[in-house]
Each structure stands twice: as C-alpha cells, then as structure tokens.
Fold:
Amino acid sequence: MIIGVVKEPDKEDRVSLLSDEVKKLTTQDIQVWVEKGAGEKAFCLDDAYKKAGAILKTRKELLINADILISIHRIELPKDLKSKVLIGIYQPLYDVSQIENLAIDGHVVFSMDMLPRTTRAQSMDVLSSQSNVAGYGAFILAASNYPRYVPMLMTAAGSIKPATLLVLGAGVAGLQAIATGHRLGAVVQAFDTRPAVKEEVESLGAKFIEVEGAQDASKAKGYAVEQTEAFKEKQKAKIASCIQKADIVITTAQIFGSKAPILVTKEMIETMEPGSVIVDLAASTGGNTALTKDATKIITPTNQVTIIGDSNIPSKFPYDSSKLYGRNITNFLKLITTDKGDLNLDFSDELVSGTCITKDGKIVNERVSKLLEVTV
Ligand code: NAD
Structure:
C-alpha cells in the first residue's frame, strides 16, 4: 500500500506527517511517498523524509499512484483518477460544495473534523490538538500586540498592574489561552455556557464568570448547545461589564457546525481602554465580535482597540502543530489498516464510520447530506 503526503497550499506552513511519523509507517509494510518540499515550511526537509524511509515524488505521481492521500486542507483531484482514500480536514459542515464531487468520483473521504469526540478517539482528535496550539498562539499574538506589560511589575520607580485577560469560550482553545495567560502573569477571567467547565477554569488559576440558566449540554457529545434568548440577554449584560475592564480578550466560542455567535458588540468594544487587544479565534465562521474580519488586524479609530481575526494560528507554529496532527493521523491509520499495512475499512467501528463522509459513490454522513438536501 502506498500512502501519499501532499504539500499543503501556499497559505499553510504545516505538513500532515513529519518524518518521525513516516518512519513509524515505513517500518510496517507501508510505502510512504512524500511530495517534494512538502515539509520545508514546517522545518522537515526532504532529506529527513528520505532518512525516515520515504520516497520523494512529484504531486502528479502521488495523486496517480497513492492508495491513501493524507493532507490537512482539502485536495483538489483530477477527474479521471482511480478511487482513493482521502484523509484530511474537509470541513463538510462549513464548505459542502466539493464533497458531492468527491463522492461521485468514488473517493472514500475521512474528514478528521467529523471524528466522534469519544474517549477512544482522543489520540486522533485533530480539532483538539490544533485548538490547543491555537489557544497558546492566541495569547502570544495578543501579548505581542498589547502595548503594555502583561505581568505585575514592582520596581523602585513604581509598580505596573498586571493585564486582565478575558476568555470567552473555555473549550480546548480557551483553556489553553487561559493557561498561557496565567503563566505569563495576566489576571484571568473566563466565561462559557457550559457550567461543567467551571472546575477546569478554576484549576488553571482563572475566575469563572457565572451566568445562571444555561441549557444542559451533557448529552451533546462534548459540544456546546444552542442557548435560550433569555440566557443570551443575561450573558450579554455580564460580558459587557467584564469587557469594559479587560485589557486582552480572547474569543473562542463556537457550536460545532454552526456560525460563531456574536458575543462582543461594537458598543462593547467602544467601552474598552485604548491599547486593548482582542484575538478572535472563531474568525473563520464569522467571528465572535461584530467587527472581526478573518486574516485581518483592525484598529478601531475611536478608541484604538486592536481586533485580530486569524483562523490559522496553528500554521504559525508549524513544527509542533504538524507533529501533533501527524500523531493523530497515524493513530487513525491504525484503525483502517492491518498490522501488515493493508487497507482494512471496518465501518462497524463508530470512529471509522463517524469520520467517513463519502463512500460507494455516495455521501454517507447524515448532517452533510442534509446540507446538500440529498437523501442518504
Ligand atoms: P470547543 O468546542 O472545544 O470550545 C468551544 C467552547 O465555546 C465550548 O466550551 C463551548 O461551550 C463554548 N461556547 C459555545 N457557545 C458559546 C457562547 N455563546 N458563549 C460562551 N461560550 C460558548 O472548540 P475549540 O476546539 O476550543 O475551538 C474553539 C474555536 O476556535 C472554534 O471556533 C474553532 O474553529 C477555532 N479554532 C481556531 C483556530 C485558529 O487558528 N484561529 C484553530 C483551531 C480552532
């Protein structure tokens, strides 16, 4: 069996497998073909892949001959290829347009963002591993755009007060932003609609902002659920009072598969102190602030608040995020290959079937087919 690792688009610095992961696969009876230069921006050079047992190829050779194609972003494939197994983040709930064509062309697509979030799936959970990097990176980005000191400083010339960090959404990314901000000396507060995260927030040294009356999310398989209008109003008032006092705000609120909720209005931003910074991690699905624009840094003309929308922070830490992504993928590969390195697609395994979005010429995920109004 041949596994192909393709080079990511220009905007991306990560690669789907680093040489260490390639080595694990080549010691099984698997050939790994890597597109020339695929790992360069993640500091994994062609020579390292060669030493790990990979064979360097052109993109065309890979697309024609590989049985499994691994990537981070969706790959565009020519029409006349034999059917392939594709593994990557295809984001079918946000961009369904190309999925139907992949199904028609007979490809079996495993979209890693659809992996069920169960305990057994944790070692394969690419959303968690990349959100972890994003949460860390969000605070680093915020601190480097914040024109003041983050920790408290006491000197003979006087003291400097610590920065106040407000994190909205305390899931994987939010918790890592809290931990990073706390480690660098910020005073941290966090809000989430899931009261269950209070303990985790507090264990990281932050204060949990409580709003009564959240919907029970315990049956939502690890995801947040939609809240009532009354709750949203209470939440808005609470956030407004906290934003006013915050120096740095990191927003990560999201319900999987939906547009990001607007939690921070233009009016709230107008109450912030000049020099304050907001980093919005939910920028790719519209953002959590009314002013967010993806891949853009805005400075408000009235009170000089910086708002950064950046939907690809893991790419700024390409080595580590590639390493984690690659581990997730090799763990997933164990589910769909035998010890001898042959393909073994067992759709009775809920992780295999839950992650698969197309097979046998059809879309096989109900949420995706509903989006396309196609009957499964
Ligand atoms: P997650 O599901 O673990 O966390 C999201 C959190 O938001 C949950 O705890 C949820 O309860 C909370 N939430 C939902 N609605 C809310 C609301 N109205 N008010 C307050 N909290 C609310 O997701 P994650 O993996 O931490 O990712 C968070 C966001 O970051 C997502 O939008 C994801 O796409 C994005 N992300 C961005 C980057 C980047 O580079 N910018 C990288 C990875 C993830």
In short: The chain is about 30% helix and 15% strand. Residues 127, 130-131, 134, 168-174, 191-194, 197, 223-224, 252-256, 260-261, 263, 281-282, 310-314 surround nicotinamide-adenine-dinucleotide (CB under 6 Å).
